[in-house]
């Protein structure tokens, strides 16, 4: 009895090991959607950063796309560096577009002096763009 158990344990062990090798070999040929090996480094510098002009909106309600890099601008619970240029109180002298007044309305529709908490995390809605190949084709058309 004991020998039979031992043999079957060994057989299962061997099968698992062979399976593991097969999986490992497959992983070697897996490619990411960008068409390179998953562990291959794609340098960000080759991605063009758009900062020449503002982007047209693709549909009426779209949060405008960010035409500049945001890498260096911190947003967390205590700080929001976007406001250093975009808040109504400084936008004029910084030459940046002012936050629209919708950003100063709280969820009950009250006008606030400071940007509303619901608009604090700007990049929840506004995103910068890079000139990268799209992963999937996009045939979106806005309604008229
Ligand atoms: C150093 C000042 C500065 C900071 C900081 C800054 N911006 Fe800007 N931003 C600008 C300027 C200037 C423009 C206008 C660029 C132009 O008109 O070509 C702009 C444009 C934009 C626009 C486009 C508005 C439109 O109507 O097309 C968005 C959205 C935006 N910024 C979001 C952000 C967000 C989000 C952050 C923080 C992560 C941020 N900005 C930080 C200066 C700044
Ligand atoms: C919940 C989504 C949301 C968040 C969060 C948000 N925005 Fe917006 N933003 C929008 C939409 C939608 C518009 C366009 C409609 C409007 O003006 O309200 C807009 C418009 C703008 C504009 C253009 C204003 C104009 O009149 O051209 C700027 C600049 C901007 N946002 C910056 C910011 C910054 C900076 C933050 C963070 C403090 C922020 N937004 C947070 C959705 C958002």
From TrEMBL:
Q: Which UniProt keyword terms apply here?
A: Electron transport, Heme, Iron, Metal-binding, Periplasm, Signal, Transport
What task does this protein carry out? Electron transfer subunit of the periplasmic nitrate reductase complex NapAB. Receives electrons from the membrane-anchored tetraheme c-type NapC protein and transfers these to NapA subunit, thus allowing electron flow between membrane and periplasm. Essential for periplasmic nitrate reduction with nitrate as the terminal electron acceptor.
Q: Which domain of life is it from?
A: Bacteria
Report one GO cellular component.
Answer: periplasmic space
Binding residues annotated for heme c 2, in chain numbering = 103, 122, 125-126
One GO molecular function term of this record is: metal ion binding
User: Could you confirm whether the keyword Transport appears in this record?
Assistant: yes
- Which residues make up the binding site for heme c 1? 68, 82, 85-86
The entry's protein name is Periplasmic nitrate reductase, electron transfer subunit
What PANTHER family is this protein classified in?
A: PERIPLASMIC NITRATE REDUCTASE, ELECTRON TRANSFER SUBUNIT
SUPFAM superfamilies in the record? Multiheme cytochromes
What is known about its processing and modification? Binds 2 heme C groups per subunit.
């Amino acid at each position: 009895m004991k020998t039979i158990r031992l043999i079957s344990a060994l057989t299962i062990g061997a099968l698992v090991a062979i399976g593991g090798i097969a999986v490992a070999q497959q992983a070697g040929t897996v490619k990411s959607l960008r068409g390179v090996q998953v562990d291959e480094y794609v340098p960000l510098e080759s991605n063009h950063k758009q900062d020449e002009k503002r982007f047209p909106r693709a549909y009426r309600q779209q949060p405008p796309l960010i035409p500049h890099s945001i890498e260096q601008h911190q947003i967390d619970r205590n700080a929001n560096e976007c406001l250093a240029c975009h808040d109504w109180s400084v936008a004029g002298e910084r030459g940046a577009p002012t936050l629209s007044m919708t950003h100063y309305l709280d969820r009950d529709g009250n006008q606030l002096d400071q940007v509303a908490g619901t608009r604090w995390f700007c990049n929840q809605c506004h995103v910068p763009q890079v000139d990268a190949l799209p992963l999937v084709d996009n045939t979106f058309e806005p309604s008229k």
